[in-house]
Amino acid sequence: MLALRRLTAGVDDKKKVDAMATWLLTWNPDRWPWRGLGATVRRVKDGRSHTKRWSCAETRGIRQGDRLFMLRQGREPRGIFASGWATKDAYRDEHWDDTAGSPTTMYVDLKFDALLHPLKEPILPRAALDDGPLGDVHWN
Hints:
This protein has helices at residues 2-7, 14-19, 37-45; strands at 22-27, 51-55, 67-72, 79-86, 91-94, 104-115, 124-125. The protein is α+β, with helices and mostly antiparallel strands.
């Protein structure tokens, strides 16, 4: 629960949350190693602003101000470990993976408001997302 409270910190206006679009971004460290993750976690925890470009596959509907969460996939620990806001609408650019079938993909700029280090602190486990109202969401 600590991880969930941290990830929803800063969202204290329920009406705002109900009205905004919310998106789930994924990260698989087996496919893309996040160099500098520890430093980025420290930066966000120190209250310093940090924005990162993140691939959103072919999703074009993300708009500036939308709520974003990040789900770690692949090997354990799997689950939600970050949250933030889209700083501008999704946009197309060169694909991050040279072996992908398409030369381009969609991206979103994510400004973190919470970022946990999945290997060093508890995150919201993937299995916990199957219970309660979250259980209706297709997470995989």
